[in-house]
Write a structure and sequence with these properties.
Blueprint (H helix, E strand, L loop, with lengths): L1 H7 L6 H17 L4 H16 L17 H27 L2 H23 L6 H13 L1 H19 L1 E10 L9 H20 L13 E4 L2 E4 L10 H8 L14 H6 L10 E7 L2 E4 L3 H11 L18 E10 L2 H25 L10 H27 L1 H9 L1 H21 L6 H20 L8 H23 L7 E2 L1 H6 L25 H7 L1 H13 L4 H16 L8 E5 L6 E5 L4 E2 L6 E2 L10 H6 L1
Antiparallel strand pairs: 1-6, 2-3, 4-5, 4-6, 7-10, 8-9, 10-11
Length: about 625
């Protein structure tokens, strides 16, 4: 009786009270020898099945407020865990092992975020599926890397700006670290070394000991100039002691060149197109021209880079450098298409594959799996950047890039939950639009050329604002799913009513799961499959090739913009708290506000799409 009174009360105070009531009922049944204990045994077992043990649904207040106590406590816990992780990582890097601290700061943030959200939806998701989605998002980075190289080449060819910067010095002038003669001598000698190394058929025919070398990441390597005569900017940084980084101090080595190369395309080489000394001028179009340029201007045999020159102190030396630099159009394509669209498409593919699987029976599971896809990509990308940039990059990405990727992954999972559990017409482009806009704007602010009239401080502040605004928007789109009743996915899996999670390569529909636009369970329970058979027979009987092309076009459009999906939930009023919620049609579900069980009810006739959306 106590259990029944508690479950029917409109002032339900949460699961702890329900557990205490259940314990009191059990003690009463032990003391009472009458048969009244048998009357409530079924309800007690039901409560135990619903709320007993460590896996209980996390309840939310009625009305789905933006902030509530449990939400604030999880947010504070996340911040505290982040600060503790940063403190421990920096202490380990300083006192124990730099590599250990770097690895902790690289892998720890995503682990903390996943753990907090997984505990929030432990009733709705499985650790196995979280791990699978996490690693599938990482695996999808392999084809992405193959595509990105071609996109970078195409983007640089179409949107980058080709500039030529002439640098003129007196023959005896130049910068404090190098004179023009020495600069030209090293460039010419480097090209000569590369030509000899390329033409050498046997390693014993050529000794590259005296050739110029560069040091990068504590690794010394030879400078290789290809046949077109281009060379890496790192060569100038080594021989002229000049840095082309945006934060580098000013230098007297051709200030116009240094200022122009602030926006040099990352990884793009430079070239010397012409060299002049006084009235003499040499045009350079290849590596061989660069190798002969010093001899053409100063007829002395080159043997080492430190040979004495024969330059007149009254001559002016002019060197014209050519390279490609970034533009606003290049930054826009880089941010919104290369980074925003392709990376969010990767996360979308990892979650979309399991959208209509029977094991995704709760909207909370989709939220966690979307987060796992974003965290998987963020972990792999973070590992790459922090291994190259060190602790400073690790701490910066810990508070900006990783939360951004997790936020966009959450939004993808939430919007896909709209499609399956609310019957919203959320197709691929509609789901990707918001994450791409957030991700692209964040990257665009950080990728702006230094010549753009936006200060560095304003760009960083704008990026931080985008991350915060993304989480606020994520919370707003999250709220409608708080009214969907909770399904005990783990219990369904133990009973064998849903399938166990498996990797994509272990499932027969690995390549076709993305093309499924209607829930197979709802279709099979409502008889929609029988309606599709005449359509397929009609298609097979079509003899006209024109009609076949038209039919293929229609199916392609349906794949891009599919029809309204069938509802997997139905609107009901909770008998325990009188809240308007959406109960599951196929599995037992529980009120997200009070824990009241909603028995499953399969409709014999599918509701119309319009009625589903309005509901």
């Amino acid at each position: 009786r106590a259990v029944a009174a508690t479950r029917s009360s409109a002032a339900f105070r949460g699961l702890p009270q329900l557990r205490r009531t259940f314990a009191s009922e059990k003690d009463m049944s032990d003391d009472d020898s009458s048969g009244s204990s048998d009357d409530t045994s079924d309800e007690a077992e039901e409560v135990r099945r619903c709320c007993g043990g460590p896996m209980v649904p996390a309840l939310v207040p009625k009305g789905n407020p933006f902030w509530h106590l449990a939400c604030c406590s999880r947010t504070c816990g996340l911040f505290v865990a982040y600060w503790c992780l940063m403190f421990c990582g920096l202490r380990i890097a300083r006192d124990v092992s730099p590599l250990g601290g770097l690895v902790l700061l690289t892998l720890g943030p995503t682990a903390i975020i996943i753990m907090i959200f997984f505990r929030r939806y432990i009733f709705s998701s499985t650790a196995r599926q979280v791990i699978i989605t996490f690693f599938e998002a990482i695996a999808w980075m392999i084809p992405l890397m193959l595509v990105i190289g071609r996109i970078d080449t195409w983007n640089a060819a179409l949107t980058a700006s080709f500039v030529e910067v002439p640098c003129t010095w007196p023959s005896a002038g130049g910068s404090e670290s190098i004179t023009p003669q020495e600069l030209l001598r090293v460039l010419s000698f480097t090209a000569d070394c590369s030509a000899h190394a390329a033409n050498s058929t046997d390693d014993s025919d050529w000794d590259s000991t005296g050739c110029p070398k560069v040091v990068r990441n504590n690794i010394t390597s030879d400078v290789v100039i290809p046949e077109d005569g281009s060379f890496p900017p790192l060569l100038l940084e080594e021989i002229a002691n000049v840095s082309f980084d945006a934060d580098a101090p000013e230098t007297d080595f051709c200030p116009g060149l240094v200022a122009a190369t602030r926006d040099l395309l990352e990884g793009d080489p430079m070239r010397v197109t012409s060299i002049g000394s006084g009235e003499a001028r040499v045009d350079i179009a290849s590596r061989d021209d660069l190798a002969r340029s010093y001899n053409d201007l100063c007829p002395v045999r080159i043997t080492t880079p430190t040979d004495a020159g024969c330059w007149s102190p009254h001559r002016n030396v002019t060197v014209t450098f050519a390279f490609r630099k970034e533009t606003l159009a290049h930054a826009f394509v880089e941010a919104y298409f290369r980074a925003g669209f392709l990376e969010e498409l990767l996360k979308y593919g990892a979650v979309r594959r399991i959208l209509f699987k029977d094991r995704v029976a709760d909207c909370g599971g989709l939220i966690v799996y979307g987060l796992a896809a974003g965290a998987g990509f963020a972990t792999a990308e973070n590992f790459e950047y922090t291994m190259m940039g060190g602790l400073e990059v690790a701490v910066t990405r810990m508070y900006l890039s990783i939360p951004l990727h997790c936020c966009t992954g959450l939004i993808i999972g939430i919007l896909l939950g709209y499609r399956k559990f609310l019957g919203k017409k959320m197709y691929c482009l509609a789901v990707l639009m918001v994450p791409v806009l957030i991700h692209g704007t964040y990257d665009f602010l950080l990728m702006l050329p230094t010549s753009a009239p936006v200060s560095e401080e304003l760009r960083v502040c704008g990026a931080i604002f985008i991350v915060l605004a993304g989480f606020v928007l994520c919370r707003f789109v999250w709220l409608p799913l708080d009214s969907v009743c909770v399904v005990n996915v783990r219990e369904m899996e133990r009973q064998g009513r849903i399938s166990r999670p498996r990797f994509c390569c272990c499932e027969c529909d690995c390549c076709t799961a993305w093309l499924v636009h209607q829930d197979p369970l709802v279709r099979s329970r409502t008889g929609l499959d029988s309606e599709a058979q005449p359509h397929s027979a009609e298609r097979s009987s079509t003899s006209s090739s024109l009609q076949a092309v038209a039919q293929t076009t229609v199916e392609t459009l349906r794949a891009i913009v599919p029809r309204q999906p069938q509802c997997q939930t139905r609107p009901v009023t909770c008998p325990g708290c009188d809240a308007n919620v959406r109960a599951h049609r196929l599995y037992p579900s529980y009120c997200p506000h009070c824990g009241e069980e909603m028995p499953s009810r399969v409709l014999q006739k599918a509701p119309s799409s319009r009625a589903c959306a309005s509901a």
